[in-house]
Amino acid sequence: MALKLALDTFLHPDEFVPVVQMILSDQRAKIAPKEPGRRFCYEQLNRVSRSFAIVIQKLPVELRDPVCVFYLVLRALDTVEDDMNIAKSIKVPLLRTFCDIIYDRSWSMDCGDAKYRTLMMQYPLVTQVFLSFTPGEKKVITDITRRMGNGMADFIDEGIPPTIADYDLYCHYVAGLVGIGVTELFVESGLESPSLLEEEGLSNHMGLFLQKTNIIRDYLEDINEEPAPRMFWPKEIWGKYANSLEDFKKPENRVAALKCLNHMVTDALRHGVFSLDYMAKVRDPRIFEFCAIPQAMAFATLSLCYNNPKVFQGVVKQRRGQAAKMMRFMKDMPALYRCFRDLAEKMEARCRTETCNDPSVAITLEHLRAIKHACISGLADSNLVSWDQHFTRYFSILFILSFLFPFHGKFTGMCACPSNLSLLLAGGVLILAVVFSAKDVPLPVIQQLLAICVFIAALVSYLQPLAWPRPVTA
Predict the structure, then answer these.
(1) Considering 217, 270, 320, 328, which one is annotated as catalytic?
(2) Membrane spanning segments where (predicted)?
């Protein structure tokens, strides 16, 4: 894993600084609080979702504990729903009463796979932290848990969502409500305006965008679930291409499988514009980062899944360097607009070449153009500039330049050689980049300094030897 990451970073030098920052953030996420309940919560968060454990650090301190526990409560609820070994007669009442169980200091349950069993067996530690929250925070978490649990129970009784409307409703229960809940926690903290609560529809779309991406990506894992497969793709879509959802994992059905996959991706893309609308209304920069990073990663994952047979063969995921860049740059709306615009343009080009005869391609292009139009309009209306838009590009140019020229001369003559000066500048920039990326602070001044360093390094490296002679050594 480490060797692969190193190779990827070497092949994509613009990802070096973001990867360093992601590694440091990962280490910070593993620093657990001293208090036993909170320590357990953050340890479990790292265990069940390392990416969320990193992203939650973007939040203001006063929001981290409520959001962490909110995530774990819903993860426990989801574990009950997903465990196919729990009889329906036990599972359905448990889901419907889980909002009361979260107040029970003694409740625990041996269920779920190995990844979640510790969380479920030692759940009273989560309850301990939950009960320490303000009445407003507890009310938000309880209400969302109640609504989600009842929704999950309804779908266990009804089975696979047959229509797209049912699919949307299921995703609302398991993910749209999460978006609504975190929005309520943002407002409860006083860091966001109460007017954001009026945008419940946009919060829901944001959750659906994430959930549908996960459902598409996890097709093979879900269909191979034991003792019974988990099937979330709506029959209204897959029924156009096969007699059974399980048929898509067979190689002989690959053409039909890809058509269905592209239809599923197209359905998910319709939520992208609404996600941008929600993000444009978020005012706190730390909350913005927390929300924007998963949205950008979801769109990138959808782009990877589109027309990709690997969805039916294994796991489709971004390179860590790409994910690290998104974590690094998603600091404001211009950055998010550029990310969505670039992804939409790349998918649009693929639609014209790879899938021009696909049954759903016209609607795919319609959604992509809507996303692109929203991004172009947003960038035109915005007076903001992302400080680090070209940060890694500057660094990567200098990083490569430092290796183009061999090291000559003794230490006393180092600065008399343009190649050595380039190397010294590269070393200095490397130190600056790592230090400031670790601190995760705005760097408009540092960005300009790096640009000057790049210019000087390039200039002196290409000066004529006679204008800058090497020192003579004995």
Answers:
(1) 217
(2) 391-409, 421-439, 445-463
Tokens of 139: 């009310």
Residue type, 162: P
Instruction: Say which residues have a Cβ less than 8 Å from residue 453's Cβ, sequence separation at least 6.
Output: 394, 398, 425, 428, 429
Buried b (16+ CB within 10 A) or exposed e, 7-38: eebeebbbbbbbbbbbeebeeebeeeeeeebb
- Pair of tokens at residue 422: 């380039």
Q: Of 16, 170, 288, 399, which one is the catalytic site residue?
A: 170
**Residue 336 pLDDT > 90, yes or no?**
yes
Is 411 considered catalytic here? no
User: With contact defined as beta carbons under 8 Å apart, do 417 and 409 qualify?
Assistant: yes
369 catalytic residue (yes or no): no
* 170 carries an active-site annotation: yes
Active-site residue, selected from the candidate residues 117, 147, 230, 338: 230
Question: Quick one: how far is CA 460 from the chain centroid?
Answer: 41
Closest to 68 measured CA to CA, from 141, 146, 164 = 141
Q: How far apart are the first and last CA of the chain?
A: 47
Which tens digits make up the pLDDT trace of 261-305?
Answer: 999 999 999 999 999 999 999 999 999 999 999 999 999 999 999
Nearest to 233 by CA among 273, 269, 265: 265
Q: How far apart are CA 290 and CA 58, in angstroms?
A: 6
pLDDT digits (tens, 9 = 90+) for 99-123: 999 999 999 999 988 899 999 999 9
Spans of all domains in the chain:
391-461
Q: At what angle do helices 61-82 and 36-48 cross, to 10 degrees?
A: 60
Query: Is 217 among the catalytic positions?
Result: yes
Percent of the chain clearing pLDDT 90 (strictly above): 62
Closest CA to 44 of 142, 125, 140: 125
Instruction: Give CA–CA dist 26/204, Å, rounded.
Output: 29
Please answer whether residues 216 and 267 qualify as being in contact, where contact means their C-beta atoms are separated by less than 8 angstroms: no
Q: How many CB atoms lie within 10 A of CB 365?
A: 19
Q: Which of 114, 149, 101, 132 is nearest to 44 (CA)?
A: 114
CB 94 within 8 A of CB 81: no
Contact 451, 394 (CB under 8 A): yes
Rounded to whole angstroms, the Cα distance separating 81 from 90 reads: 11
Scanning the structure block, which residue is given the tokens 């020229």?
405
